[in-house]
Amino acid sequence: MKQGLRVGALLGLLSSCTTTPPTIGDAAPQLTDRRSESAYRKMLERYSDRAEIYDGFDTRLFAGTTFETMTFREARVRRLAEFQFLPKPRVEALLEKERSEEAQFHEFHLGVHVNDSRFEDLANKDSIWRVVMLTPSMEVEPLSIERIGRANLDMRAMYPYMGVFWVAYRVRFPKALADGTPVIPASATHVHLRLASTLGHAELRVHAR
Predict the structure, then answer these.
(1) Phi first, then psi: what are they for 177, rounded to 5°?
(2) Of 88, 68, 65, nearest in space to 78 by CA
(3) Fewest Cβ atoms nearer than 10 Å: which of 25, 162, 173, 194?
(4) What's the structural domain count of the chain?
(5) pTM given for the model
(6) How many angstroms separate the Cα of 91 from the Cα of each of 75, 79, 85?
(7) Minimal CA–CA distance to 29: which of 167, 155, 169?
(8) Could you say which DSSP state residue 28 is in?
């Protein structure tokens, strides 16, 4: 009986453990218009995912990603416009820039929190991490991985799953192979971003459209 109570207490303790880094600093900014805030959060959820890598009870990596589809890019620009009260010509210029970039690449915003800073090296040529995109038809390596930098309030307003000590990356993949074959087939509903190393691996699944 006592053994059962001890097991039950342990399970209760484990179930109360969080799977995200502790909240430190200011919360991510939100719009005062609750309907706009809710609509953006739903859009973000559609194109985003979270994953963790553990070693027992020790955290190795927290990761979050957003697939920068044109639908999401437009929502992000309009969210920024609401925060900054941007004039219409400025909004249209930002949208045109987003359309140009989206036409060239499949792009992911990737945020990571690595407990050991030695392994926060995704943009390095000799990184321990291998990052690929998985589609229903193929595995594709990135054209580039660019370190954007530490998360700040402006970044977290757009990607609120990121914590204060997270680091952001821009990961770009080709739209098509050399022979013209689309990297993401028209029939695809989801794609995955995989991060793999000797520390472990994580797969983040997002809507393809």
Answers:
(1) -80, 175
(2) 88
(3) 25
(4) 1
(5) 0.86
(6) 11, 10, 10
(7) 155
(8) P
Which tokens belong to 51?
């994953």
| Domain assignment of residue 129, yes or no | yes
Q: Can you give the pLDDT of all 209 residues of the chain as single tens digits? A: 444 444 444 444 443 344 444 445 578 999 999 999 999 999 999 999 999 998 877 778 999 999 999 999 999 999 999 999 999 999 999 999 999 999 999 999 999 999 888 889 999 999 999 999 999 989 999 999 999 999 999 999 999 999 989 999 999 999 999 999 999 999 999 999 999 999 999 999 999 99
Distance separating the N- and C-terminal Cα atoms of the chain: 54
Range 72-81 burial, b when 16+ CB lie within 10 A, else e = bbbbbbbbbb
Place of tokens 């995704």: 122
Burial letters 26-43, b for 16+ CB under 10 A, else e: eebeebeeeeeeeebeeb
Asked, for residue 145, whether it belongs to a domain, the answer is yes
Show the tokens assigned to 195.
Answer: 């991060």
* Residue 4 belongs to a domain: no
The residue among 80, 82, 177, 165 whose CA lies nearest residue 137 is 177
State both tokens at 143.
């054209």
Place of tokens 């291998």: 130
Calpha distance 87→67 (Å, rounded): 27
In terms of residue numbers, what domain contains 73?
28-207
Look at residue 6 and tell me if it is in a domain.
no
CA-only gyration radius of the chain, Å: 19
Residue 35 CA, distance from chain mean position: 23
